Amino acid sequence: MASTVLITGASQGIGKATSLQFAHNGYNVIMAARTVDRLNAAAEEVKAFAPSVTAIPTDTRDPEQVRKLIDQAIAQYGSIDVLVNNAGIYSSGPADSFSLAEWHTTLDTNLWGYIHTIHFLLPHLIAQGHGMIVNVSSSSGKVPIPYLVPYTTSKFAITGLTQSLQSELSPKGITVCGIYPNLIKSNFMERAFFPGKDQEDAIARRKQLEQVLNVPVVEKPEDVAKAIWNAVKHKKTDVMVGSANASLISNKLFPDFLQWAMRRTFKNSDKDY
Ligand SMILES: NC(=O)c1ccc[n+]([C@@H]2O[C@H](COP(=O)([O-])OP(=O)(O)OC[C@H]3O[C@@H](n4cnc5c(N)ncnc54)[C@H](OP(=O)(O)O)[C@@H]3O)[C@@H](O)[C@H]2O)c1
Q1: 173 secondary structure, DSSP code
Q2: Which of 33, 75, 147, 156 has the smallest number of Cβ neighbours within 10 A?
Q3: Looking at the domain assignment, is residue 272 inside a domain?
Q4: What is the number of structural domains in the chain?
Q5: Rounded percentage of the chain residues whose pLDDT exceeds 90
Q6: pLDDT of the residue at 271
């Protein structure tokens, strides 16, 4: 019988590439995201390769919607073997320019969205005595990034969530893995937001990132999807994807220099202290 994976943020970017990766490897795929048309279109593509695909429109920030997502998935497939927590949002600007609502948008999606799926799925995983939870974090879940404070906060929280869960759940037969990619050329700019000192600053931040994303060496969603598949296949618990290794090593060897260089790069029109 085919194994089953549930992937959040599956309609685009890393989530869609991961859905295709698992489909090619014979998994039933449950795909969740908010925008129905785009989710259904992505599911149609994945259907060509998977034994079974189910698209379930879900806003992972809403616990009630996530409870229904897990209930429907269990009712249809009996069990879930792998959960890939991936739905996330990017935000960048000086820390003092974020409104509380903008802090919430970042943390409600990147942290609480992951907690919601884990909360409702965990009793099933513990009862079945096996399974894997993969949390897509970011290199900024291990390396602090200036001008990305709410995002970095959410991703460091995912590192703690992942590592403490792994410690507690491994004796119960469940593996918990953190995936840490660097910048990836996905569709994240569509929903990214850039609070700035003023409109000009916000526009400059967006443009700066768009330019970096056009550099050909920037990694692709498929690179992360392969790393996730490899992690599941070999039950890994901690995966720095490609160039993220260099970020981690630089931060260990030259933390002051790296932080200074990143402040210079990302400050735009913020004051240089
Ligand atoms: N791209 C990068 O540079 C990069 C680097 C490191 C880590 N990551 C992490 O990788 C993950 C995926 O990022 P990506 O670059 O592939 O993003 P993306 O291209 O923007 O795709 C995001 C996906 O998440 C869904 N989504 C967003 N908010 C949601 C919500 N509240 N509920 C359910 N689904 C939601 C989106 O669909 P809807 O909007 O229709 O819901 C979409 O399917 C994120 O956790 C991100 O932080 C990305």
Answers
A1: T
A2: 75
A3: no
A4: 1
A5: 94
A6: 76
